[in-house]
Amino acid sequence: MEPPSSSRLNSRKRRKDGSGPNGATELDGIPPKMSRHSFGLREPAPFSDEIEVDYSKPYVRLTLEEATRGTPLDRPVRVYADGIFDLFHSGHARALMQAKNLFPNTYLIVGVCSDELTHNLKGFTVMNESERYDAVQHCRYVDEVVRNAPWTLTPEFLAEHQIDFVAHDDIPYSSAGSDDVYKHIKEAGMFAPTQRTEGISTSDIITRIVRDYDVYARRNLQRGYTAKELNVSFINEKKYHLQERVDKVKKRVKDVEEKSKEFVQKVEEKSIDLIQKWEEKSREFIGNFLEMFGPEGALKHMLKEGKGRMLQAISPKQSPSSSPTHERSPSPSFRWPFSTKTPPSSPANLSRSQSAVAYDISEDEED
């Protein structure tokens, strides 16, 4: 009996793009929906020791061909998957989803190891066994939970729970003095491999917390946990409080810087607008100035026009050449009695006469 081919199971790897419900795609090989005879959809999955098993019917394990072809509803393929399931996360849920969808009609039984067994063979857990049982119970793919599951599966355990196949990733799991605790299951043809979800595991989550321990310690102190509950010393508690105050101051300074940057940006935008408007107004002003006071401006034309009018107003009018010439009649002269000569003229009369002569001469010249 051969396990399912790897090409079929590789299609169940997590895909980010074009995924449907629960990250599944059309290539995942998930069968169409069918009525599910289980407790997982509406209420938590029951524990195996709370279910009455009918041992009157003989247990006959299904072959891989029979399981793949499909079985009647009253005889589902019983698949078993076990683990610690500490800090139950999406990687656990996806592994159980793959186990649930290995065959068209699957009844998934999940075994959870106890604290004592886990602490002795693997290490300390964050969640206790009751919390881990409860987390697995509320996974939608689980039909039954086995508490205090064994570390190594024995034929008696497989027969007790009438298990047809065991689902787990195919990486050899060395523990309890064995190179691979699933080696005998693989040799028996009962192993159905699943794929691990990369980037998420319990160890990864614990690593994140340990790496950023101070951050999470300060976080819980802010939320009201005491230093005693967090196992934090008095000095570290004061250090965390001081760091929190410093971070608040830094945040305020950062907020002020961002606001100041926004203000400066707005001022720059406003100044650019003002400069552009000033340039437009200045070009308009210079153009108007040159239009008025430039070499060929309106003021020069006005001055020329005014000068011409002033010269025309102050210059004497010339008499027309066609006007007749008026001759001045000589003024009568006074003679002394009994004298043939004219009397001497006074200086005033002399100047008048000279001016009259000059006037007559000028008029004659003009004529």
SSE layout:
Blueprint: H1 6-10, H2 64-69, E1 77-83, H3 90-100, E2 106-112, H4 115-121, H5 129-137, E3 144-147, H6 155-160, E4 165-169, H7 183-187, E5 191-194, H8 202-211, H9 213-222, H10 234-293, H11 298-314, H12 347-366
Parallel strand pairs: 1-2, 1-4, 2-3, 4-5
Helix pairs in contact: 9-10
Question: How confident is the prediction overall: mean pLDDT?
Answer: 79
Helical content stands at: 40-55%
Summarize the helix and strand pattern as letters: HHEHEHHEHEHEHHHHH
Main β-sheet description = 5 strands, parallel
Strands in their spatial order, largest beta sheet: 3-2-1-4-5
| Number of beta strands | 5
Query: Any idea what the radius of gyration is?
Result: 59 Å
- Enumerate how many helices there are, as a single number: 12
Shape: elongated
Distance between the first and last residues' Cα = 153 Å
In percent terms, what proportion of residues is strand? 5-15%
Give the helix/strand class.
alpha/beta
Report the uncertain regions. Answer: 1-40, 355-367
Pathway: Lipid metabolism; Phospholipid metabolism; phosphatidylcholine biosynthesis; phosphatidylcholine from phosphocholine: step 1/2
Protein name: choline-phosphate cytidylyltransferase
InterPro entries: CCT, Cyt_trans-like, Pcy1-like, Rossmann-like_a/b/a_fold
Function: Catalyzes the key rate-limiting step in the CDP-choline pathway for phosphatidylcholine biosynthesis.
